[in-house]
Fold each of these.
Amino acid sequence: MANRHVNAIVVGAGAGGGVVAKELAVNGLSVVLFERGGWPQYDKHINDELISQRTQVLGSAFGPDHLKNPRVRIWEDGFRQVVTPIEGDYGHNAACVGSGTVSYGAMAWRFMPEDFRMRSTYGQVEGSTLEDWPISYEELEPYYEKAEWEVGVSGDDALNPFSPPRKRPQPMPPFENNREGKVLAAACRRLGLHPFPIPMLRNSIPYHGRPACIRNRTCVGFACPVDGKNGTHNTVIPEAMATGNCEVRTHCQVAEVMSDGSGRVTGVKYFNGEDQGEVQTADLVILAASATETARLMLNSTTKLFPHGLGNNNDWVGRNLQGHAYTGAMGLFDFEVTDYAGPGATFGFCDYNHHNPGIVGGGLLCNEFNALPYLFTGSRPPGSASWGKAHKDFQMRNIKRVAALHGPIQEMPNFSARVTVDQKVKDHWGIPVVALSGERHPMDHEHCKWLSARAEEVLKEAGALETWLRVGGRGLSGGQHQAGTARMGNDPKTSVTNRYGQVHGIDNLFVADGSLFVTVGGFNPALSILAIGYWVSDYITTTWKGTGFKS
């Protein structure tokens, strides 16, 4: 039996897709929400560090299946390497209802006004496609607020002198600093910096019928055992389903977006949980599968009007892949500086996010999420023993005596960092896979060295006996903060969508995930992706008239 025609298909049940499905459903549109994974269950993904963080890839316990979903990494010398989701070069993103919002650290940052006008603030950067967004912080601010209150954020931006303007505070009070946070925040204040509690998509008090966070030490990379961490899987997607207008179709791999002779999309081809090919038709299609998988789907959907992939006649789909180079420093103390109160990260400061001499942008610095025993084996001063008795002795003696301070640097977008598809390597369903190529802009590593030095200053002021830098910014970006591959813009020649996420030349195809980002900011992007989901949805629900869009 053929699937019933619906108003909208949403591909990807993560931050952006979950929001879009809910907004369309509550406004009366019939929706099918496709997710290649299943519903996350804590009991099936217990707090086992070896399955969740063995390669330091966030959330790898939540898929995708490493046997069914290879990718290709193309190195500078042209060598093509097949990689799987449990390898660091994969550019991992989760595969489950909620996607990364199930296992993330749940930081809930708003981008700053400057993050939306980087080109105007800093000028042209050689070798970069740095540009302003076609929307401003002021336009997105109401949607940030909606995300904070509907999904649930704890924090107090009044304590952050660099906070962008807001009309309403966060709905829940901030979390108290753990021991490490208290020690390092005090050092920041002595240096004239401005520490404050990290805003979190976690319940500091019971909220919307779910309990408060229990400060579980095994938080990042895992589901929450009490449902106190807020993602789309336990907030907006259940709301969408409760309307009766949204069907969540799990274990479904979307292969292609279909379109007619005029260029308008008509639905998707997909494989169901039994690997059978099916078709779902719709009036609208919204892609929110991540910056790598959204680009892959567009590139694999070719027509006579778009021979190189939907929206790709100007060769911008898949370009400008960004993520975050994490950078910082570590310090060894002569006392137990950590108490392992979860999730570990409790404070940050934004003194270095913008307006630093000689730096384009900058980055946030925070204390670190808890390093569980296996992950801690990589937390060693240079020259330390990596095996044997000396290694074990360091582990036993110092696991609570090492503190970290780090954060994401704002990367410079560049045209050669990209997603393409590999026609020779196919996934389990025979679909050409993501191929990743290019490198970060060389400026990123220089900026990382600068920000790591600032982190080291704080650790020394806090009393660390020994400090060492952990400098990022080399290689290709992406990972769980992937963005930029279908950037929004006013000019179809240099962007993929308009300011509302509507693909240039295809009025009923939208993008609603981090792919839209022009720049990725110096912050974790989850709250901004939620806000973009609300922004795109608002345009659709206020302009759609059943067969087309109001003029």
Note: The first helix runs from residue 15 to 26.
Amino acid sequence: MKHGFVKVAAVTPDIRVADVAYNTEKICEAIQETYDNRAKITVFPELCLTGYTCSDLFTQDILLKAAKDALLKIAAFTAGKDMLVFLGLPLEKGGKLYNVAAALNEGKILGFTTKTFLPNYGEFYEMRQFTPGPEQAEYITFEGEKVPFGPQLLFETPAMEGLVVSAEICEDVWSPVPPSIGAALEGATVIVNCSASDETIGKDTYRRELISGQSARLIAGYIYANAGEGESTTDLVFGGHNIIAENGTILAEAQRYHNAIVYSELDIRRILSERRKNTTFKASHGENLIRIPFYIENEKTQLTRTFPKRPFVPSDENARAKRCEEILTIQAMGLKKRLAHTNARTAVVGISGGLDSTLALLVTARAFDMLGRDKKDILAVTMPCFGTTDRTYRNACRMAEQVGATLKEVPIADAVNIHFRDIGQDPEDHSVTYENGQARERTQVLMDIANKTWGMVIGTGDMSELALGWATYNGDHMSMYGVNASVPKTLVRHLVKYAADTAEDRQLRDVLYDVLDTPVSPELLPPKDGDIAQKTEDLVGPYDLHDFFLYYMLRFGYEPSKIFRLAELTFRDEYDNVTILKWLETFCRRFFSQQFKRSCLPDGPKIGTVALSPRGDWRMPSDACVAVWLKDLGNISLME
């Protein structure tokens, strides 16, 4: 449970209709199996102790007594087991029969959650046997013990702050106002559902979307355990469609028509972080619902869920293509509005033959197409200097020609050398002054060309560079509109590749592919034997890692030790722990020390859930201290 992870399980046991003894045996076997696999929360289907399809047999005293006795036996079986179990059964109270989910922990029955909405349409006729639960929970006496009974019971544990569990039963989540809504607003971070949803054509898709959507709406984990093989097939077939979801993402899903257990780990801290940021999530945390303690041990959860290496980039090729098209459109739409609003006659883009400037040029061309403007008014400016290689220079020129822009070449070496003379900089001293002098000269050239042509300088820098401060202040850091400001480096590459893959012009396609094959470099140091001498990722670290760090720090507010744990799991085949820790420390230090550059960013369109605009998503003081984050990194043991 370290870092907020809790392992959970959704179980479809083998059952026989009305054979309570057999069902009890199978349920206990499943409890033992999930316990052995260190699941802290285990959920079984609706009425699985008897079978959901008992129909009028539910009116038989002998079946109800058998279910009651079996529940006591199963509760006793949980003694000494570090888990919370939810189990469906029929329960008689006051001459009425209720469809309930019993919560079991450490040999005790903690509560009975009642089903609120009883389906009585189509193949369902539950109101023939059952009564809807009360509107508010109450206490009943069960086997001499006072036990909570009703909807929206909250089960919470001192072992993990924020782990609050509530249950609902099948149809409840299909209703217009599920009970889980009220439970979530009162603090429930995990919703369990004991269900018996039969299979009909296309219902699995709707069920999947329903559970995913409910977990997103509630910003919660959702464990859905469904009835399966063993139920009566007189009229229906049950597929055992178990689902574990978290805030809109399905983490685990059972193969239908095969009774099984599915496991995953819910991230409670992530859920709480999302709720904190979402101001429309109006948590009440009042005393309206009954809160029941349960006890589990706090231990490190072994993670089985996976985390994408490139969280900004969809892994599915079709989804990635759709995402790229949408991003390019958002970028171009933002620039289109700014060009039209300012009556800019030209758009000035500094092109280097690298990925970022390539993307900016492609976006600018799109914006001109949207405006119906002649792309000759795009001024693509190449400014060769000390570090420019023939390859990047050639690609920059060819690209400008293929998109229909006007190419302008402004060599800056003489101007930079004069500047070095004026400030007393030795040209042989390849320090940061040597590098930044070139970057600032390039920006001056672009700004003055824009002034001369009544134009606007289009920024090329991306979000990963902004996060690391890998930009020259008032150099490539500055522009009049930054189209790439919300695009991380790992996504820039895919956007350029998408443009290449879909380009109708073969020559443009060829030059874009060559740009993709060129090492990332600011080209501010002289080449070695004609090749790029300065490779960004050798200096600042791999962008795959930095974008991973950026995503989990900003999107979910994870502490560095948790980010390290996820990176260790995700990149174990690419980087050793020492390397990951080294670059994570670099990321933290640079992210804090370079905020002053982000505090005065040009405008630019937001394209995703993570952005660094000081006017929007990320407002951070420029002199904030990184000490707490580095201290957390210092607690990491590489030997774990």
Note: The radius of gyration is 30 Å.
